[in-house]
Amino acid sequence: MRISLAYLIYFVVFASSLGFSAIYAATSLQFDPDIIVIEHTSVISCINCSVNGNTVNVLLKDNSTPPNPTTITLTRVTGTNNFLSNPIKFTSLTPDLNQFPTAEGRTITASNTDGIDSVSIIIQRNFNLANVASGYKVAKQPVSILVGVCSDTNSITGGDDDGDGICNNWEDKSQFTAASCVNADGSKKDGLCIKTSDTSPVYFLPCDPKSDNWSNQCPDRKKTDLYYEIDFMTGHKPKKSAISDLAYAFRSSGYQPNSVSGVSPGINLHVQLDENVTHATQISSSGTLTNPGFDQLKVYWFGTKDERGTTSGVDNTYPTIANYASQWFKTSGLRDVKSQVFHYILFAHGLAGCTGSCSSGHSEMPGNDIVITLASFDNMIGTLDQQEGTIMHEIGHNINLNHGGNEIENCKPNYLSVMSYSRQFSDLVNRPLDYSNNTNLADINEPSLPSTLGSYGHTEQQIVFQKDSTALGYWLTGSNLVPWGTNPNVNNIFAAGCNDNATPDILKSFKDWDPSRLKLIARSGNGNWMD
User: Rounded CA gap, 387 and 373, in Å?
Assistant: First the structure.
């Protein structure tokens, strides 16, 4: 978890993170994000607009009486036919620069007189979870461990060839026997088929055997698989490109389970990018019956709408107690069966008690729960870099990685991992989206700094360290002398939130992609919450 040191919006950074493509319709205005909660921001854009000049004027108004029209200028992104506004905050308070006065429930319309199609949205409500009927006044439902070890001698599980905790008979369709996993003609369906006992309900998730996409690829008993469901508060949906970059990092990691033959290297990341949940400005990473938080949100929203069998509590509304009558919520029901494999991420707004510079997220270590909170970062939803770096950082905690790999020591220059605050984002150093691959770099004895750290031995990378009281230092692994400065506490990187003023330490590298360290199993237990 990184702390946002200031809420600054950089136009160029935001524009580059949108990932524009020719698939967008020409000459049409749009909002990004296209669902806006009061006191949140959005960017107005025109993608592939065939207009002359470098600006487009847009009239922004709502349906108040009288209307309050404001002219917004969209600026051409250099070298493209894409035009963007600065981020605009929609506020019920006295507006400031780049803010538009409005209220919950009002319809906002952006229009243009040059033949560009207009677009309208409705400003969504922000909720206090303790005051929304009684739908969130429920107790936490921890994971019930229905299957411990995938035993070779158990006909239900059939062992676990790749050591990922997902039993062979759940991944290998040739072993499917449950009716919901078999076609009418007796052929086996492609998918994940979780059955925990002869009498348990069966959870089936279909897949495409020709796909390698995180949204619909198939499980493989000969390759490590990792499953997540992601829900998001209204206006905080993560970018699909962030998940794609993350899936690539896991797939190309080279991760190999110990003492397992015939297993392909790497990890297949499977993600259900699911649905909008009730928006609240701040939530606790736990919660109680009287002060609902993450635990209460997960009780209801874990599982897709179709899996829950409910039709209310969707699209920034909230559930009622009656919704919990579904079979999905029964003890040892389908919800518990799905929990044997799936971890859960909620993209929320902010954590309770935070003002000003706030955390980017919390997660169980090890465990199955993550809450990501990027409200104090760019555009209140984070750039592509901030989103993907935070997701990978928090997943790292879930699978048993600390800020120093096997220790809490943070911002170690010789630990080249997104788990370090100095490498969670690429704002301080140009780094790949990755965990550490080896321990090749030399120890750093802060009282007596080494002249060099050696070669990383994978792909040489740039390291970052605190050179003196104000400046950062940089060095490329495998090159000559490290240009240390006057600061002996080289991991005291203020810009990353690492304020280690203690006695100088011996800083060690660590290999994250190590099966003896990682705990991938969703049902392995609920650890302590980590930043």
Answer: 10
Among the ranges given (125-134, 209-218, 406-415, 423-432), the one the predictor scored with the smallest mean pLDDT: 125-134
CA dihedral 138→143→144→149, nearest 10 degrees, is 180
Tokens 């894409």 belong to: 82
Distance of CA 217 to the CA centre of its chain: 19
Q: What's the sign of the alpha-carbon dihedral 128, 131, 136, 140?
A: positive
CB 490 within 8 A of CB 515: no
SS (H, E, C) 67-85: CCCEEEEEEECCCCCCEEC
What is the rounded CA–CA span in Å between residue 392 and residue 52? 42
User: Among 5, 319, 304, which Cα is nearest to 134's?
Assistant: 319
Inter-CA distances, 44 with 56, 93, 104, 124, 372, Å? 11, 21, 19, 17, 25
- Name residue 310's amino acid: T
User: ∠ CA 203-396-343 to the nearest 5 degrees?
Assistant: 15
- CATH code of 11-125, in short, is 2.60.40
Question: Does this model's pTM top 0.85?
Answer: yes
Give 146-199 pLDDT, tens digit per residue: 898 899 999 999 999 999 999 999 999 999 999 999 999 999 999 999 999 999
CA distance 362 to 341: 20
Q: How many CA atoms lie within 13 A of 216 on its CB side?
A: 7
- Of the listed ranges 252-261, 461-470, 476-485, the least confidently predicted one is 252-261
Q: How far apart are CA 354 and CA 343, in angstroms?
A: 26
Taking alpha carbons only, the member of 261, 199, 298 closest to residue 522 is 298
> What pLDDT was estimated at residue 423?
98
Euclidean distance between CA atoms 2 and 420, whole angstroms: 9
List Cβ neighbours of 4 (8 Å cut-off, separation of 6 or more).
357, 358, 360, 376, 377
Distance between CA atoms of 221 and 241, rounded to whole angstroms? 27
Boundaries of CATH 2.60.40 in the chain?
Answer: 11-125
How confident is the model over 303-357, as pLDDT tens digits?
A: 998 998 876 555 667 888 888 888 888 888 899 999 999 999 999 999 998 877 7
Sequential DSSP letters for 472-530: EEEEETTSS-----S-S-TT--GGGT----SS--EE----SS-TTT----GGG---EEE
Q: According to the model, what pLDDT value does residue 311 have?
A: 60
Residues 347/231, Cβ–Cβ less than 8 Å = yes
| Cα dist from 504 to 165, 236, 406, 440, 470, whole Å | 40, 40, 19, 22, 18
Structure tokens at 269: 């990341």
| Number of other CB atoms surrounding residue 506 within 10 Å | 11
CA distance readout (Å), 318 to 3, 55, 290, 307, 372? 30, 41, 16, 17, 20
Contact (Cβ atoms closer than 8 angstroms) between residue 81 and residue 48: yes
Query: Which token pair is 255?
Result: 């991760």
